[in-house]
Amino acid sequence: MIKTERILRLRSSRGRRVRVVREHYVRDRVPCYSSLCQADCDNGAKVLPGDLTHYVVPDAGVVVDYHEILEFRELHGIVFTQTACQALKSKGRRFYNRIRELVKDPRHSCVLFANEFQEYSYCPREKGESQEKWQTRCVYSAAVWYYNHLAGMMNIVMITEDQEAVAEYSSLHSGVYVISVQDYLKNFWPEVEEVHELYASISRSLREKEGEGSKKKKEFSEHLPTEILEAGIKSGRYLQGTLKVNKHRPQKEAFVTSEGSNNINNNINNNNNNTDLGRVLIRDKNRNRAIHGDVVVVELLPKSEWRGKGTSLTEGHGDEKEGQDGHSKPMPTGRVVGIMQKNWRDYVVTFPIRDGTQSQTRNSQRILVVPWDRRIPKIRISTQQADALQEHRVVVRIDSWETTSLYPNGHSVRVLGRAGELETEVQTLLIENCIHVPPFSEAQLREMPVSSPDKPWRVDPSEVAKRRDLRGTHLVFSIDPKGCEDVDDTMSVRSLDGGKVLELGVHIADVTHFVKEGSLTDLEARSRATTYYLTDRRYDMLPPVLSADVCSLLQGVDRYAMSVLWKLDAETLDVKDVWYGRTVIKSSYQLHYELAQQLLNGEEADVPELKELGAQEKEAKLKELRQALKTLTHVARHLRAKRGRGGALELEGVEVRAQLDETRNIAALVPSQPLEVHETVAECMIFANQQVAVKIQESFPHQALLRRHTAPRRDLFFDLVVSATSRGFSISTRSNKDLAESLDRAVDPEDPLVNRILRIMATHTMSQALYFSTGSQPLDQFYHYGLALDRYTHFTSPIRRYADIVVHRLLMAAISMDGGVAPLRPPATNKDVQELAQHINGRNLAAKVVQRQSTNLFQCLYFRDRDPETDPRCVTEAVIYSIRDNGVLVFVPEYGMKEPVFLAHRDGRVVAVGADGRCHWLKGSVRHHLDHITTTSSSGTSCFRIFDHITVRISFSSSTSSCHADYLKLEVISNRPPHSSGPRPPPSRLRSQLVKEVQQAEEAQAQEKEEASRLPELSKEEREFRQSKMPNLYSLLEEVKELALKEAP
Ligand SMILES: [Zn+2]
User: Fold this and answer.
1) Residue 19, φ and ψ in degrees, nearest 5
2) How far, in Å, CA of 382 to CA of 366, rounded?
3) Residue of 468, 668, 765, 794 with fewest CB within 10 Å of its CB?
């Protein structure tokens, strides 16, 4: 190792010149990360392949300005130099971190070369040399080093935007080429069109930035330097928190919930004081260029400038999940003084219809595009396609936001398609929720086992020898919704010791046998974290060969499993012993719920697996299966009862679980009579999850992945209690047991919807269950409120949840530790597990949001082409469940929607009810009471109460210039329910029918267009991922599970 001194000349914040001497160490051995290495570098696992035509070395300027281009997976063999990455760091840490992630990710063919530590590539900066020139020289020197180090076996291309550098270096060394980015892309990647578009877009925005005058008027104040912000937070002068823009008043209102404010809130609530110090209101321009999701630093304004937030309904949206206190008192109000972390992402925007007023220069036009997400400000971009892209949706990124500009600057990344078309809209939802589901790559698929109809995958005898073989001893079966392809879980039950012992078994697909930690498939599954279910399609977490075939515990084939086997006392059902481990199973029956219930009830049942058998044999088999199901039910009842005694009861009734979500229109698909067998299967899975949770928590007290569910916030119960009181019911929210029991009692025999609505409202108060690392929470925070269990995790669905994969690995590590063998790899640290838990929590939330948004999309498309005045399907019954300042929130049973209905207009007109119940708009006033709302006009006073059944007309409303999501508008036409409900489709077919009709309409439209102009073909991605055109019952049931108060097992 050689020490040199490196002299830095810096300028202090006060403008003084400071000379800093740093010791700099160089080594003669710095890894090259190339598979062609002849010098025995210590290269580790990720290396650049040797079969490429060249390696590319971008200089600092290219990495700083065009790093997005280098992120394309299509580009291979990229060498990032330390010099270039340091330069990027000065642009922003998050960019630097992105490159670091890229380098770590084996899916990208790129490496980081520590050129400044390598003796022969390091060049000290010369006197008078500019930083940029020095950086370019360093990178060139690194490029030459690579060429020599690899003995001339690989061509090296250095790319730079510095024309002088091209002239100076390009002919110095044969085998090392120096060219511009544009030339590089044109010559080497002509076919990757998106790269070229992105290059054009970025370079245009860079040119614009250069040309921008700096003498403009300041619209915003400068952000304070980080040191001052940090000191201010420490001293308590400033608050730090995440900025959340109110989507109903995006220009006016945003809130910052200060970090660690929970304690403050709790204290305040205990003192019965309603001032919410943890939440700060940011109004208008005080947001100071912060964007929704940024971590900001806020200074409180003097109390005289505090304001309240608005509470009236705004068009286009349902209600928000917030404590509703009717009137808004002034709340802490502040201004943003700095941004700690910018959380900018890709945004979908719409190009406005051109009106000729936008500025236009010779080559390009600067236009303001409107983000789909209302919480994001308009973004200014330069483009040459402003006309061609009118009313199209385009992905853009924000580059900067200057103090002199009312809007941030950005550049376009790619075009999604015309607004309003199904594919464009679905892609929009995915991008807006940061859901990235590219087709599984070839390299990933090469990791997969081979299985085809002609040559199905088979178990390996040497692997079987290592496992407990249950094929000859255990009657294993699965019970799932009809049509389920990916069978995660199976069960078994048998009698031992002459009937004294019952052995219960839960056998889960052994996904981790096929998905090795750190493999490409593992990384992809980890970044997806879950399977995404949209209304008309799904995006799997694992490649289909695993999820629908090799891992799926199908009937009649040998499969690897992870099993939990309990020995229970046959009398008391107490657990005597638990065994965990890897097994081989062969499922005998793949039952669906209805069939299993029929068998249990002793009804005539048609079991497909027994079709071929003779009468006698069939009867014997049926008897055996029936007995197993009976025993299982017996055990499950016991487990459930024990759970009920052990703590509070579960909140949800069966009815809620079955008929839950209002906006998702799924209620109708679930059997109205829930079957006990649902409960039985769920209970067995809960039992296994709980058992595994205990096991991994005991083995890894600081780094096990568990799942917790906190009690709901009491203030959210306000609406529920008010609504119930208006019908004379009292709801106790003291504990989940009290809540469940009081909800059970709140039944109006005249109106079954009352109980249903109360339960829906109770559901809305519930918090999300969350994954966490056991080292990050005190023990008393592990509690699962919904299940009333003190430890819980997810183990039973590894095919579609990444958490379960992590838990399987933890369980295997725990088992090998029990056997005295140290696990193959040390388990991840608490910090790693907690980070992973947060990632999975975030993805689960995105999965939920995208599912809801895609349902909204389909509902809108369903009503889009109907005439609300003539189409009877647009007129339907609605029930009022909440009162707002200028209207009410209603639930529409037929379509399972929850929407606002306005009773007052801004122009001073209100809804007046005539003698026949018909509603008209007249001049008047509106008044909000606790459980009702009144309107007064020349025709008298009318009243709308909670639980009133009214008639509404549903019409489609396009958002302004189709920039945002469309929405449905509900208008009250009578304060009574519709007279005749008329012949309507049975609810059980409604949703699939809705989806079908929308798709047919979409296809018909597409055909029309095709005749006019050729329709762009579906991308490869779209083709591959249209895995299921119609939603199957399986995915819908999963949806219900997720929605239920009760945790999906
Ligand atoms: Zn080497």
Assistant:
1) -110, 120
2) 4
3) 468
- Is 452 exposed, middle or buried (CB count within 10 Å of its CB: 0-12, 13-18, 19+)? exposed
**Is residue 324 within 8 Å of 254, Cβ to Cβ?**
no
What is the largest distance, in Å, between two alpha-carbon atoms of the chain?
Answer: 99
Nearest residue to 412 via CA among 390, 435, 382, 392: 382
Rg (CA), the chain: 32
Give distance in angstroms: CA of 151 to centre of ligand 1: 10
pLDDT per position as a tens digit, 174-192: 889 999 999 999 999 988 8
Instruction: Say if CB 902 and CB 886 are below 8 A apart.
Output: yes
Task: Let me know the angle formed at the C-alpha of 400 by 394 and 403, rounded to the nearest 5 degrees.
Answer: 130
**Could you tell me if residue 665 is left (phi over 0), alpha (psi between -120 and 50 degrees) or otherwise beta?**
left
pLDDT the model gives residue 1037: 35
* Cα 146 to middle of ligand 1, angstroms: 8
pLDDT, average across residues 933-960: 89
**Does 327 have pLDDT greater than 50?**
no
Handedness of CA 887, 891, 893, 894 (dihedral sign): positive
Give residue 549 CA to ligand 1 midpoint distance, Å. 42
The DSSP letter of residue 316 is: T
Distance 14 CA to ligand 1 centre (A): 45
* Sole residue written with tokens 């509106």: 926
26 touches 40 (CB < 8 A): no
The pLDDT of 595-599, averaged and rounded, is 92
Q: Is the CB of residue 222 less than 8 Å from the CB of residue 204?
A: no
Give residue 145 CA to ligand 1 midpoint distance, Å: 10
Distance 147 CA to ligand 1 centre (A): 11
| pTM of the model as a whole | 0.77
> CA neighbours within 13 Å on the CB side: how many for 25?
4
Rounded distance from Cα 745 to ligand 1 centre (Å):
75
Ligand 1 centroid–CA 108 distance in Å is 19
Provide the pairing of β-strand 110-113 with 78-81. parallel
Distance CA 336, CA 1002 (A): 46
| Rounded distance from Cα 39 to ligand 1 centre (Å) | 5
State in Å: Cα 43 to ligand 1 middle. Answer: 7
3-state secondary structure at position 827: coil
* pLDDT tens, position by position, 480-502: 887 778 899 999 999 998 889 99
Task: Quote the ligand 1 centre to 522 CA distance (angstroms).
Answer: 28
Please tell me the distance between residue 42's alpha carbon and the centre of ligand 1 in angstroms.
8
CA nearest 559: which of 516, 602, 590? 590
Distance 28 CA to ligand 1 centre (A): 11
CA atoms 999, 1004, 1005, 1009: torsion sign: positive
- For residue 932, which amino acid is it? H
Q: How far, in Å, is the centroid of ligand 1 from the Cα of 721?
A: 70
Structure confidence by residue, pLDDT tens digits, 899-927: 899 999 888 899 999 888 899 999 999 99
User: 49 C-alpha to center of ligand 1: Å?
Assistant: 13
Calculate how far, in angstroms, residue 156's C-alpha sits from the geometric centre of ligand 1.
15
User: Going by C-beta distance under 8 Å and a sequence separation of 6 or more, which residues neighbour residue 436?
Assistant: 430, 527, 528
Task: Specify the amino acid at residue 838.
Answer: Q
230-260 as b/e, with b when 16 or more CB fall inside 10 Å? Answer: bebbeeeebbbbbbbbbbbebeebbbbbbee
Give Cα separations from 491 to 344, 587, 632, 794, 806 (angstroms).
Answer: 46, 9, 9, 17, 22
Q: Is 639 left (phi over 0), alpha (psi -120 to 50) or beta?
A: alpha
Measured CA distances, 982 to 553, 863, 950, 979, 988 (Å): 46, 19, 16, 9, 17
Q: How remote is the CA of residue 98 from the centroid of ligand 1, in Å? A: 25
Cα(31) to centroid(ligand 1), Å:
5
Token pair 């119609």 in the structure block, residue: 1030
Q: Is there a contact between 1027 and 538 (Cβ–Cβ < 8 Å)?
A: yes
Rounded CA-CA distance 799/937 in Å is 60
